[in-house]
Design goal:
- Helices cover 36% and strands 31% of the residues.
- The chain is of the alpha+beta class.
- The chain starts with a strand and ends with a helix.
- The chain has three domains: 3-84, Elongation Factor Tu (Ef-tu), domain 3 (Beta Barrel), CATH 2.40.30; 89-234, 2-Layer Sandwich (Threonyl-tRNA Synthetase, Chain A, domain 2), CATH 3.30.980.10; 275-398, Roll (Diaminopimelate Epimerase, Chain A, domain 1), CATH 3.10.310.40.
- The chain is elongated, with a radius of gyration of 35 Å.
Length: 399
């Protein structure tokens, strides 16, 4: 089995190793070396990336105790120089060590165990067996975690024999094996872990809890550490500064300014909707007043150019609210939408009429005897179809 240099020194960035085995894979070759500092992933931490013999390492994984490095081609040299993508490695070290620290604080402060850990490309999460965490409790956890970061506590990794494990009182039980690798934040946390970690908590950098949510009976905590937390703060600071400039307020007053603007917009929307309803009522009244009648029934048949389907439907419903009224309306932009409705005191089947129209002029639709709608008709046929439908109604009402 390969010597895993990352277990001895997480800060190892380069090494030389000899090929011990190789095999084809879907995207090239996988090679095993006699020594490597590429972490193969596990325990929620993704695998390292970098280069071998100048070629990109596409993936690293563990299979039956061996570390396999995926490369696009099989190297010809028996000895290879490996280079770790250090920015990626250190980012993972910050996030993983931050997770250990935050999990220890959650256990100490809330009695909450960490059930799972996920280190993604943008955010990091832990799932706790705790009820909903309030904003105040979340801030207290964040404060304590950052206090421990600023204390710059040593972080150590070492191997212990199975017989020595019970006396350590680990935060979580180890997997079965001959030996257990322990990652210790001195005086704060003892956990079995095969991942890469910083050597002191100060290297974790800022820990920022972004949000908490209920998840599978517990609580999911989303957070960022180190450079990720800084980058997150930077873009948010820029956004707040830009908003403060636009509203001509101080940074701390942006939230209240936004809330006032939203409240004003909601009120404006409410007033606009009220005015729209009034306009619809006026339009419907004007259409009915000028509509031809057969007996006591007014037939309003119009193609409403420039009106949306929603607006046409509102006008049709307003017309149907007037006694003795049938509305045959069509919105024509961006596509034809037909609305055939009648007032309750008119005994005509709008669904049957719509079916006849679409059979003759194209499209389709459906509905109820008192109200039907459809579409799919060529725009150039809309006016003709409405005139035909109105003629059918006049004939039936005259019969």
């Amino acid at each position: 089995m390969a010597v895993r240099l990352y277990l001895e020194d997480s800060f190892c960035r380069s090494f030389e190793g000899r090929i011990e085995a190789s095999r084809r894979c879907d995207e090239g070759w996988e090679i095993a070396l006699d020594r490597t500092c590429f972490y193969p992933g596990g325990g929620g931490q993704p695998a390292d990336r970098g280069t071998l013999h100048g070629m990109p390492v596409l993936d690293v994984r563990e299979d039956d105790g061996q570390v396999w490095h995926q490369v696009p081609e099989l190297p010809t040299a028996p000895a290879l120089r490996g280079e770790i993508d250090w920015a990626r490695r250190f980012d993972h070290m910050q996030q993983h060590s931050g997770q250990h620290l935050l999990s220890a604080v959650a256990l100490e402060r809330l009695g909450a165990n960490t059930l799972s850990f996920h280190l993604g490309t943008e955010v990091v999460t832990i799932d706790l067996d705790a009820d909903e965490i309030t904003p105040g409790v979340a801030q207290a956890l964040e404060d304590e975690a950052n206090r421990l970061v600023m204390s710059d506590i040593p972080v150590r990794a070492y191997i212990v024999a199975p017989g020595d494990v019970p006396a350590l009182h680990l935060r979580k039980p180890p997997t079965k094996g001959e030996q257990t690798r322990i990652v210790e934040i001195v005086g704060v946390d003892l956990s079995p872990c095969g991942g890469t970690h910083v050597s002191a908590t100060g290297q974790i950098g800022l820990i920022k809890l972004r949000r908490t949510e209920r998840y599978k009976g517990g609580t999911r905590v989303e957070f960022l550490c180190g450079w990720r937390a800084l980058r997150d703060y930077q873009w948010k600071h820029q956004a707040i500064a830009a908003l403060a400039h636009d509203w001509s307020v101080a940074d701390r007053d942006v939230e209240s300014a936004v809330r006032r603007t939203l409240a004003s917009e909601r009120e404006a929307q409410r007033q606009l909707e009220h005015l729209r309803r009034q306009v619809v009522g006026y339009e419907a009244a004007a259409m009915r007043a000028s509509a031809p009648t057969v007996g006591n029934v007014a037939i309003v048949a119009r193609a409403l150019a420039g009106s949306s389907a929603q607006e046409a439907k509102q006008i049709a419903n307003a017309l149907a609210g007037e006694p003795g009224t049938v509305a045959l309306l069509a919105a024509t932009e961006p596509a034809v939408r037909l609305f055939f409705v009648r007032s309750p005191d008119v005994s005509l089947d709008m669904r049957a009429l719509l079916h006849e129209v679409t059979q003759s002029f194209g499209g389709g639709g459906g509905g109820r005897p008192e109200a039907a709608e459809g579409g799919g008709m060529p725009p150039e046929k809309a006016a003709e179809a409405l005139a035909w439908a109105a003629a059918q109604l006049r004939a039936r009402l005259s019969y």
